[in-house]
TrEMBL record:
GO molecular function: protein heterodimerization activity
Official protein name in the record: Histone H4
Length: 70
C-alpha cells in the first residue's frame, strides 16, 4: 500500500512537472514574440495565453470586481 502511494505521488509529480514545463516554455515564447515588448518581462497575459493553449477552459478565480454600491 505504501509503495502504491509513493508510485502515485511520483507519477503525479511527473505529470505536474511536464505540465509546468510546457506552460513555462509557451509563456516565454509568447513574451518573446510580442512586437510591442520593450523589456524582457513576462506579463500575466503571456501566462494566460500559455495556459489557455494547454487547457482551453480557464475560469477566473480572482476576487470581486471593483464595484461600489451607492
Amino acid at each position: 500500500m505504501v509503495i502504491r502511494r509513493l508510485d502515485q505521488k511520483r507519477e503525479m509529480r511527473s505529470l505536474l512537472r511536464e505540465f509546468l514545463e510546457c506552460v513555462i516554455r509557451d509563456t516565454i515564447i509568447y513574451s518573446e514574440d510580442d512586437p510591442n515588448a520593450r523589456w524582457k518581462t513576462v506579463t500575466a497575459m503571456d501566462v494566460e495565453n500559455a495556459l489557455s493553449r494547454q487547457c482551453p477552459t480557464l475560469y477566473y478565480l480572482g476576487g470581486e470586481e471593483d464595484s461600489e454600491e451607492d
